[in-house]
Write a structure and sequence with these properties.
The chain is built from 19 helices and 34 strands. The strands form ten sheets. A nine-stranded mixed sheet has the order 17-16-11-10-6-7-5-4-18, sandwiched between helices. A six-stranded mixed sheet has the order 2-21-25-26-33-34, sandwiched between helices. It starts with a strand and ends with a helix. A hairpin with a 6-residue loop joins strand 4 and strand 5. Helix content is 23%, strand content 23%. With 775 residues, the protein is an alpha/beta fold.
């Protein structure tokens, strides 16, 4: 049978992140050791920081619940949380960080000019720390059709209010802002780095961002189950007050950095006047109910009145206050608060008003104008500015003086229900963004097409090639860090073996910005989708030949692998929204990532990531030392019905591996020039036959002699077609070892094998293969 294939169709294949895994049996020879060390670590252009002050790290999800119609439920409302435990705990109360609008927990880890963020400072001071990505943002899932509309800040808006106010701002104190590093303008690498961290956020929705975050923070405090200090910024201020109101006995203090304000009505910061409509915090500190004494059922009962004039110095509106006798925020009265306001920020116009409201309502709030304590020139993003350490020191000193340390230090240790893992093997860590460009009309540009990349550098480098992980559809780089039952993921294993490890979130996913109105439509998998194809195919109605062989889902729940299984519910909390045109966004970012690393890497890909990994390898073959493809997307020519183990149609746009062009010899200009025939299956009933090229074969120039390991699990639906990509690659000049895991004694796995109960067996097998084949 001959088939002519034409035109192009993008294909996205990435499973996890690129991972370099190599195993060197026995002691390294001097020559091998020199080679390994020459490739150790990250390049100078990639910021990493010592983990000397950290003992343990981990991730987990706080809150969350199923939303949607029966049979179409999706997990939403949960918050991704990173926890850092210092080597020496010196304080009994952990810090919980709550970021501002359009941002994520990356705010606390690193500055855009590549300096360590506040989290490193407070780790050195001995604080346990929890850093959240608010619900529907970052690595916390946004549920299309449920959560509401998304928006994103433009670069000109960022310049005006955050980074270059002295040049672009239109508010009275803008000229005093001089602490943002670099020029603060588009085209400055520091500003561009900052713009890459700015992600989409909820605009209108049935449940506000404040309430979603509040619910997740309450769940977080319940999980921590001991008192904490809240450190909130901007939009994060309101959920901080609400959380303290809900759990007053668990909040020992609040440090708030220019929180959402003002009370009652919004302010036009250019004219220094109140808006005629609303826009303020109708309940004084929030736009939703909070506990007052005497009780208040309607915010009008607060009887707000506007001062005749401001009693605060310089460029400040008069304040709305309560008519006396004031209602008291009774649940916040025993919580000390410090409120920081910058010298050159637009927030100064109304910051004193929220502080005044808090004090009138019985909340002991110390309002600090930073210039009054000798800290000058800051704007709203003070934690990222040149003098950020000075501000952290001030906060640390305030906490030491105002938060009595009465409890035992052991109270700060995360409970056993929050998984953390030793950082003994990690010498340095950091993150950066690969690729990216401004999109949108002139004057409304937004940063997009960029890829968040987390990097771990081993304490002892033993291998010359780093590992880059490409994840699967609906997932993020978090899948390589941890399993849903709370075991260390493959990244911990590989860094312990001496590999530098890079974990990505694809563009428009996770901590990489999605640009509404520019990027493609968003989708998300339902819980039933996950059950039927990945976690519980037999009881949930799956339909493929080998599903009864799946036994390794890591749970003993009666609902094993289904809704109601705690491990499954935890797994669904990390399943994210995704775009339809993922391949077009990810491949350029993947190429930029390899160029920035600047040395050959081992690319470990899973599922959707597999196709994108092949695309990247085709474009940068000299930067690929080898590849591990875990059930990559496919098949490469025909679409298969996994229930019937039969082809439904052929794809006329396929270039063999994906629908993006590949470099062949002899060269071709169109997939229609590939002539293929169908080779019968070696294992009919479980595996389809494979399409291969007619002779003479066009060789894949970039893949000639490239070593590849392709893996297929025993109980997966992917087995129906997994054999075909390796056959296509080998015929075209690659050296692809196709391994059915049961043939090497590894049984019972499914598509998400890196999360299965026996995940360590599989990564050890991969590590051993690398050690033998990628020297």
């Amino acid at each position: 049978m001959k088939l002519r294939i034409s035109s192009l169709v993008p294909v996205v294949v990435i499973a996890g992140c690129l991972v370099l895994a190599m195993s060197w049996p026995g002691a390294l020879s001097a020559k091998k050791a020199a080679k390994a060390n020459s490739g150790a670590g990250a390049s100078a252009s990639i910021p990493t920081f010592p983990t000397d002050d950290l003992a343990r790290t981990g991730i987990f999800y706080a809150g969350g619940h199923y939303v949607g119609e029966p049979g179409k439920e999706t997990m939403g409302g949960d918050s991704y949380v990173v926890v850092w435990v210092p080597k020496q705990i010196k304080h009994p109360y952990p810090i919980v960080y709550v970021h501002g609008a359009g941002q994520t927990a990356t705010d606390w880890e690193q500055t855009p000019d590549g300096r360590p963020g506040w989290a490193y400072y407070f780790a050195k001071q001995g604080y346990v720390q929890y850093m959240v990505d608010s619900p529907a943002r970052g690595r916390s899932p946004y549920v299309p059709g449920i959560d509401g509309e998304l928006t994103i800040r433009t670069a000109p808006n960022l310049q005006e209010i955050f980074t270059a106010s002295a040049k672009k701002g239109n508010f009275p104190r803008a000229h005093l802002h001089n602490q943002f590093p670099g020029t603060g303008l588009m085209g400055d690498p520091i500003f561009d780095n900052f713009a890459k961290t700015q992600v989409q956020f909820l605009g209108a929705g049935p449940v506000s961002q404040d309430e979603l975050t509040h619910q997740a923070l309450v769940a977080l405090l319940d999980a921590i189950n001991s008192p904490v200090i809240l450190l909130t910024h901007s939009q994060g201020g309101t959920p901080g007050w609400l959380t303290a109101d809900s759990r007053p006995n668990q909040v020992k203090a609040i440090v708030t950095v220019e929180p959402a304000a003002p009370p009652i009505k919004g302010v036009n910061t250019a004219t220094l006047a109140y808006n005629t409509g609303g826009g303020g915090l109708s309940w004084g500190v929030a736009a939703q109910p909070i506990t007052y004494d005497p009780p208040v059922k309607d915010p009008a009962e607060l009887q707000p009145v506007l001062e005749a004039k401001s009693d605060a110095p310089g460029d400040v509106v008069p304040c709305y206050v309560q008519k006396e006798p004031a209602h008291k925020l009774i649940n916040l009265e025993k919580i000390p608060v410090v409120y920081l306001s910058s010298e050159g920020g637009y927030h100064r116009e109304y910051d004193p008003c929220l502080a005044k409201w808090l004090n009138q309502a019985g909340v002991h709030t110390q309002f600090v104008r930073l210039e009054d304590v000798g800290i000058h020139g800051n704007g709203h993003e003070m934690m990222l500015e040149k003098n950020s350490d000075d501000i952290a020191k001030f906060i640390g000193s305030w906490m030491e003086k105002n938060v009595p340390q009465k409890d035992k230090l052991s109270m700060a240790t995360p409970p056993s229900t929050i998984p953390t893992f030793a950082t003994d093997s990690i010498a340095r860590q950091g993150f950066f963004y690969a690729g990216g460009k401004y999109v949108g009309d002139a004057g409304k540009e937004t940063m997009g097409d960029t890829m968040y990349t987390e990097v771990w550098v081993p304490r002892q480098s033993k291998h010359p090639y780093p590992i880059v992980f490409f994840h699967g559809n609906g997932q993020s780089g978090a899948v390589w860090r941890q399993t849903p039952d709370g075991r260390p993921g493959w990244a911990y294993y590989l860094v312990a073996q001496g590999y530098t490890v890079y974990m990505v979130d694809y563009p428009a996913r996770g901590r990489s910005p999605y640009v509404p109105g520019v990027d493609a439509k968003l989708g998300i998998r339902t819980a039933l989708d996950l059950e039927t194809i990945w976690t519980a195919p037999v009881p949930s109605g799956g339909n493929f030949p080998r599903m009864k062989l799946y036994t390794q889902w890591p749970s003993d729940s009666p609902k094993k692998g289904m809704m109601g299984d705690p491990v499954f519910d935890n797994f669904t909390k990390g399943q994210l929204q995704f775009v339809a045109n993922q391949e077009q966004l990810t491949v350029p970012a993947g190429v930029a990532l390899l160029d920035q690393i600047g040395k050959p890497i081992i690319l470990i890909s899973h599922s959707q990531g597999g196709g994108m990994a092949f695309d990247v390898a085709n474009l940068r073959p000299k930067l690929i030392a080898g590849m591990v493809a875990i059930e990559p997307g496919g098949p490469q020519i025909g679409n298969a019905d996994t229930a019937k183990v039969a082809y439904t149609r052929v794809n006329p746009n396929s270039w063999g591996l994906t629908t993006m062009p590949f470099n062949f010899d002899p060269p071709i200009k169109s997939p229609s020039e590939l002539k293929v025939h169908l080779v019968p299956s070696e294992r009919p009933g479980d595996e389809v036959g494979c399409y291969l090229q007619d002779e003479p074969v066009h060789k894949l120039v970039s893949f000639e002699n490239m070593r590849i390991l392709s893996i297929s699990a025993e109980g997966t639906y992917h087995r129906v077609f997994d054999v075909c990509i390796p056959k296509w690659l080998n015929q075209a000049g690659a050296k692809d070892d196709f391994v059915r895991l049961e043939d090497v004694g590894i049984h019972g796995n499914m598509h998400e094998m890196f999360l299965d109960r026996n995940s360590d067996e599989i990564v050890k097998f991969i590590d051993n293969w690398i050690g033998k084949n990628l020297k």
